């Protein structure tokens, strides 16, 4: 069969024979490329090959749509994303169509959450097709690529986010600067139309080396975009299929990406044949928009006459949520491995191409971000069927002649040079007019070295970096980033109010009293004077819930806090909801209001597989703080009781103690009676910790802090637990059965025994003195002190004794022992007793003198109390003074007090009145001045 490409095939075979010393694999590849082009052009339904974010593809698409006026447009995009495309008119591009799933059914649980995005920019062929199909009456847009569910069905189960199996190409071989908005897509799998890059690194490196460029985006701009910018449609179409076929045939046969692409091609052609059969549309009135890589497909299902044996697997039961999220040029570059600034440069090239060629682009009615074109589309011409249309060989001439590049535009280059110097000066660089001249001349020089008649934006970037950025960057932006801003900037999209999910619209409506433009990017300050304007209290509630649900940078309180039992009078917030619009939109996938989402998350955390009693108590506190729902708090509290009873470890004992105390204090202050679940929690906790206490004392994996928290719960909740029916004997038996082996836990046990009355403070002093007197125990003494410090949690009355124990160590240890031991003591206190050090400092400040002058004559209270009496006291010491005489002269008051207390006795005679024994008279004998002053005051 004779084809228009027979002459080209012969030329390529001759070249292969001359280069490879005979027809071999190279000849087969070159001949196969021509066959792929011939096959794609002979297909009855017109195939439009594109490259994503290609100005040449966008321009050719706009031109072809006005010429052909197709009735059906098939597009390579996930078929379940079709309903969202009508919402693009309410957004400012670029935005991304997103499918999101947090609750999985049919996929591994560790994959959650799943997210797929398809970014759309104005300088893209798919946007031109979407705008044409949605705004032209009688035109149907059909998405034929596999569904979002199938994207993850086809993922390798070992690595769901693998870039090889997803639609993300390999990263550029050059380092890119950090991007401020590179995380707008998060870790979503990216779907794009027309990814044209070599499938193995060797070919890409070969092309970059011989093309004298740094990265793939620059190679594509020089060797594809510029030659095809003004090419006719037939030339564009043949060249794009040729490139797609070249990369396809040079890809490794076992590459996972190629297998996935072939599966997608079978899927798409099956969907198109099904739609044609169901709708009865004429193939001559249809246009299939796909990547050039897929246009050169060789699967059996290719074409309208392909086989119909492919079966599409059913979707899983996973519930997918769909929406639009903001995107940006830098986010697209980061996700799809493009060079920094390449998408911005493509947008600038597309705008310049439209001006040069006069092509009128399509734009959705009401599209934000720019004025609609005033040019009107021409009447639709008579359509010539692709079957009868003569296909001419345009490849031979295109490949034989050198690319026709634009001549040097000195005015444009001079304007770039002046503008970059101005931006550099504004950002702290010491640039001058001489630098502008240097950038201008260096750009021309670099273009000449790279065989270019006209400097490209990439040449200009390199020249600006060379001439302006000397040694360091004085500000936040380097020169390369300034060039990107000057050539178009990192355009950031925005989803309009009408396209937001109900939750996001509800948030905007409820925050209207703040008077802020919440859709605006950047940080805005909100001042809430709740005392003067009570209606702002509802705004405060919304902001605190958003603070809980969204990233901290989105909603950040500056003044004010929300605690149990407290009501704010004034608050100040920094809001960045416009910057974090994506997170707010994804929040809308979980519910209709923020209250519903918060309740779902709290319930999910409490009933999840990793839930603990501490998690449940935190959920109770959050429900009380943010939702103010007693019913829901009681439900979560009942779950906390069940979780505590089922726990077999005490790892969360400190948090349980802290939150239980806080909730108990809150309910005692605000409610007439305690909730039933809290009483049950105290009873269950008392029995639970008594049961686990002996094992916790000897378990090496249980820390001292956990044991102290257990004792703190038992001692601080003891009165309430006993009133609810618990038995104190259980605690006494648990302490008696505890036999710790570590110094810190031993000290904790001594503190518990002291609290129970089985160990006096004097006995504690004796044990500490024995430890200090034993040289073998001295290295472990800091651990005993650590245990005593932790004991302040269950027995805070021991603060004075702990100060005494530390002071005794400093007083009695010799310097050779004390100095090496001091760092260990400080480290131990800082690591294990940080929460209790302030209490010790306050106690030490109360005990020790305030000045150095009084320190020399100061006697420690524990030393004074232990000092012996200066003289032995007889059984009946003779006490002289006015007080006995005063009591004997006025006996009525003493007799009345004795009768009230039920004491019987008689007054002594005058001679024996002064012979009175007892501690009171001993005290009066030691300190007679207050008694004499009192007697003088009453005239006795």
Supply database-style keywords.
four-stranded mixed beta sheet, four-stranded parallel beta sheet, 52% helix, 940 residues, alpha/beta
Quaternary assembly: single chain
In percent, how helical is the residue content?
40-55%
Distance linking N and C termini: 142 Å
Q: Which value, in Å, is the CA radius of gyration?
A: 42 Å
Parts with pLDDT < 50 across at least 5 consecutive residues: 15-19, 159-182, 371-388, 867-879, 912-918
**What's the number of helices?**
39
Number of strand segments: 11
- Beta-strand share of residues: 5-15%
Q: What integer is the average pLDDT?
A: 79
User: What characterizes the major β-sheet?
Assistant: 4 strands, parallel
What class would the helix/strand composition place it in? alpha/beta
Tertiary shape: elongated
Strand order of the largest sheet: 1-7-2-5
Structure commentary:
This protein has 940 residues and is an alpha/beta fold. The strands form three sheets. It has a four-stranded parallel sheet. Helix 30 runs parallel beside helix 32 and helix 31 packs parallel to helix 33. The longest helix is centred in the N-terminal third of the chain and has 24 residues. About 7% of the residues have low confidence.
